[in-house]
Design brief:
97 residues; mainly beta; 7-stranded antiparallel beta sheet; two-stranded antiparallel sheet
C-alpha cells in the first residue's frame, strides 16, 4: 500500500468521456493545476493516477484550490477508470509525480 495524504473529499463525479471527469467536493489540502492525484492507494499497478487539468471554485476558474474550499476539479486519467464509487482523492507523499 502506498502512503498518501487525503486531498479532496468527493461529493459527485461526472464522467465527461475520453478519460476526463469533473469531480465536485471539498479540498483537504492545497491542490494545483498539474498535480497528480490518486484514487486507490491499494493498487500497485500505477494506473490510478489522475492529473488535475483545471480547478473551479465559487464560479471562478482558479489555478489552485486551498484547504477547506469547495469546488470542482477537472481531471484526466485512463479511459477505463471507474470513479463513480470514489469518495476520496489522495496526494502521494514524496513522489507525487
Amino acid at each position: 500500500m502506498i502512503n498518501g495524504i487525503e486531498a479532496f473529499i468527493v461529493g459527485s463525479v461526472d464522467n465527461l468521456g475520453a478519460g476526463r471527469w469533473k469531480i465536485a467536493g471539498r479540498a483537504c489540502e492545497v491542490i494545483c493545476v498539474g498535480d497528480i492525484l490518486r484514487y486507490d492507494l491499494r493498487s500497485t499497478a500505477g494506473n490510478n493516477k489522475l492529473q488535475v487539468l483545471s480547478v473551479t471554485s465559487y464560479n471562478k476558474e482558479l489555478s489552485t484550490i486551498y484547504k477547506m474550499m469547495t469546488g470542482s476539479i477537472l481531471v484526466s486519467g485512463a479511459k477505463e477508470d471507474n470513479l463513480e464509487s470514489v469518495k476520496m482523492l489522495f496526494l502521494r507523499g514524496v513522489d507525487n509525480v
